[in-house]
Amino acid sequence: MRRLRAPLLGAAVAATLAVTGCGVGSGDSGGSSDNMTMTVWTTNPDQLKLLNDLTAEFSKTHGGGKVEIQSIPQADYLTKISIRLSGGTPPDLGWMGAPDAVGMAKNGQLVDLGPQLKDDASYQFDDFVPASFTNWQSGDQVWGVPFSTSPFFTIYNKDLLAKAGAQDPAKLAATGGWTWQALSDLGRKVQPTLPTGSYAFQSNDGGIYGKLVWTTLEPLIRAYGGKVFDPDTGQCQLNSPESVAAIQAYRAMAFTDKTAVPPGNEADFFAGKAAVTFTQTSRLSQLKGAGFDWGVAPLPAGPGGPVNFTGQAGLVAFKGGKHEKLATELVKYLSGKEGTQKLASFFPPARKSVLAEAEQIYAQGPLPKDAIDPVLVSSIEKGYPFRYPSAWPEVLQTSAPVFDKLWAQNANAQDVMNDLCQQLDPLLKRDVAGS
Amino acid sequence: MRETLTAYLLISPQMLGFLVVVLIPLITVLVLSFTDSNLLAPDARSVGLDNYQTMVSEDPAFWRSVVTTGIFSAGLVVINVVMSLFLALVLHRKLRGAQLFLALAFLPVVTSQAAWAVVWRFLLQGEGGTVNSLLSVFSISGPNWLFEAKPALAAVTVVAALKTVGLKAVIFLAALRSIPKEAVEAARLDGASEWQVQRRVILPLLAPTTLVVVIITLIGSFQVFDYIMLMTNGGPSHATTVLAFAIYQQGFELMRTGYASALAVVLFVITLGLVAVQWWARKKWVHSE
Amino acid sequence: MALRVLLYVLLVLAVAPLVFPFLWMASSALKPPAEIFSYPPRLIPQHVAWENLSEVFRLQPFARQIWNSVYIAAAVTALTCALSLLSGYAFARLRFPGRNLLFFLLLSALMLPAEVTLIPLFKMLRLANLVDTHVPLIILPVFGATGVMATFLIRQFFQSLPPEVEEAAQLDGLGRLGIIWHIAMPLARPMLGAVAIIAFLASWNSYLEPLVFLNRVELFTVPVAITAYTDATGHPLWNVQMAATAISTLPVLLAYVLARRQITDSLAHANSR
Questions:
Q1: Which residues form the signal peptide (chain A) (predicted)?
Q2: From the candidate CATH numbers 3.40.50.920, 1.25.40.10, 3.40.190.10, 3.40.50.1820, the one assigned to the domain spanning A153-310+388-434
Q3: A118-127 residue pLDDT tens
Q4: Closest to C233 (Cβ–Cβ): which among A80, A87, A207?
């Protein structure tokens, strides 16, 4: 049993660590009170470097301490920020997804940036595409600035489509022929040519059966001329004839034609196992070294016309942070024209003047050159995001088990949607009654 | 007198830490369970027995989680004991390579639960998952393990059980080695068959150890959080939400710390009950200690 | 003979699910995404994707996260050994009022599921401004179940040891602390070794505590870090996740191969108490 020197060695090591001050207390909210903290959910080193460079520049010109960029994984982001807000130690500023920001604004947890942004002519507030502020503004108050307005678009595996002799969606789109009907036809044509375990269509990130249901459902319902709810009356419209027709169109692909990835299946476009899906620019990097040729097209249109749909994240300053004023300045700095230009290579901008330079900015990016204007720029300019109700977390929680019923083989879409609307109405009406 | 002082001095670091890290939180959790404390709200009001009332009569998920916990623990114990006992009995026969098998069986024991769970979640993917691909070689079409209620609970139970089979096998082996050779020899001389020796002589002698293993496994079965969190997140539709996981969900996802504390008190009472049973059982059956 | 073959077959069947995950983890760690779910499944990747390994370190500060785990586990080990030696010795050798009561109280922590006290601990540590630091990850095991287990083992060890040597030393004029340092600690080495192994593994493997108490990626420990290799939607990047898991499991497996006997005995001993 001579090996037992090991623990003593361990003790010695630990003691040395303690003595050399290899800090156990790596510090809570960033040490010196002069420093600001900014929370983000990316761990991408290139993005972090850019943010560090930009904030260092800001500290030089605007004073204040160092800005510490903290990454918190996306899965826990909202929880961790909420806990810090309630504990009275929020970060000074940070990223926030549109769905979460709406509720936070209503709870008074965000700083109103309105006066500072609008009174400064050099900031050019009206340079932003107006629809991009759908979720960030109420009246004259501005709760955040979208730094990423990322359009959803169609992406397809050219090899798989060519093998089946299917038409190219981008070409169809150019003549207005890229519709849900066309997608469904394409599915029936392509499916027989695919190996088992592969499918013609995958919803956005395969998420229609889970938490991401809305990112596929919203553009689908819009294409059929429906709406999830009417923001003016707070009336749920998921059970309207248009919405139900839209849902049935998808159900037909998944359960009748069996051309869409079924529930619980992992078949993934990026692994070459789905011919068509929807995505956003941030995912395109996954295609580096993909063993297939791919193309992009706008989202499919429908009886309700073409669809331009964006997902958003914004920069917000938190109420109760130690440097509310300086944090607001930093939001302004990062979302000003110059900041937006620099961030644009990672995050699609909503500033018209920056969009005008899109061809240059994305020249090196993964998006095909001929798609930059018709797919990216035009979707942002014409697009509008989902309008989130402030009770969004409850909407998600209430709807999840009901959607589970919708994705059963024999479900009746109309009945399920009636049930869903009945449960959602009181939540959606809260914003109307409250305002 | 001096000795008393020295003793208090020696135990004080641990006792003080114990006070702060175990005792005070234990009392606090009891207090919190009678309030509507919320992680996001600064003040909590006393609500009497409301949380317990809600738990028992209004929250269907509570009873479900108690039942799920029971199924999980029972399954874990059975799989664990059967597999480890089998391993121990076979390896005790001085087979060539027994040491190697034992070493391999012990690998999961030193691996972290998180790593074990992450790898198994990967293996148990629905279509295209490794386990199902292997099953399909034998023309068995496996379920979508982690996304269907019963397969999910079964999968989590088996994965948790496999992790500690090696450890329990070693404990059984130690017990086997301490069985006096004479007892076995005597039985053989009496003309007992191999099977009879195993059944009539060895297994009864292993009874006390088996009891110990059952108890450790039962108590260890509450350390299930990592598997649930990483493999199923409590789903599908609460099918794998055991009590320990419900506490985390209520406390840190829904922020309902008052209600979560009430659940924690229930879990504590259940463990206390188990500990009491253990003491009583050991007194009754395990004389050797 | 036939029995022998049958036993080997059964043995392989029983051990396969315990070993197979490691093989598959290693193989998936080196597969490109397209091969991850290939059918039929292959153990040996067709194209070896070494870049998975560099992705592990590019996507997260994984080296720093490993270091976090290492130094926290070392601190937990050292503190557990020191504290349990002191109190275990005292509970075994010294007589003082309340000895049995206090020891019984300590034992209550042994079976306590971590989830029970997690919420008040979180509230307390938040007040003390210790959330998002490594302090909770060190003090919780040292003073919680792991530390209590250690004390229990040390106490038992001294109880099984005749006190003559120490008594002689006392006659020689050594004080209590002198006895502990010069006599008791060397004597208790085998048990301290077991305690060190138990404490190190408990800390190295803990997942719930870092999940709850840490926010920032650069403070993460290994078990939480490996689960954070996901794409923007929270879906695992399987190959990178497997690579990270393999990298983090390797050192422990290696240590196990080197000190197999010791580790096996320590864990079995501690658990059968």
A1: 1-21
A2: 3.40.190.10
A3: 988 899 999 9
A4: A207
